[in-house]
Amino acid sequence: MNALMKKAQIFKLGENPIVVLPVSVWETIRERVSQLEEYYQMSTSKKYKKDIARARVSKKEVSSKNLYKKLGLD
Q1: Which helix (H) or strand (E) holds 18?
Q2: What are the two backbone dihedrals, phi and then psi, of residue 59, each rounded to the nearest 5 degrees?
Q3: pLDDT digits over 17-60, tens only?
Q4: What distance in Å separates the CA atoms of residue 38 and residue 40, rounded to the nearest whole number?
Q5: Model-level pTM greater than 0.85?
Q6: C-alpha distances out from residue 46 to 33, 35, 38, 54, 58, Å
Q7: Which residue from 32, 43, 40 is spatially nearest to 3, judged by alpha carbons?
Q8: Where are the domains of the chain?
């Protein structure tokens, strides 16, 4: 994040500071925030935690051939 902020330019408009970022830096920050929001939602979801616990207990195995078919990678 520090590398991104080095590209920022800070100006003052009256009493308020204004930060100007290149569009590419802004998009990178938005993507990171979006990922963090998604991780937070997953970590607080009861259904998600139950599904993970159920999958860890399950002894069901899927062959790589069937997995590739399900994912459409064959």
Answers
A1: strand 16-20
A2: -105, 5
A3: 888 888 998 899 999 999 999 999 988 999 988 988 998 898 88
A4: 5
A5: no
A6: 22, 19, 14, 12, 18
A7: 32
A8: 2-71
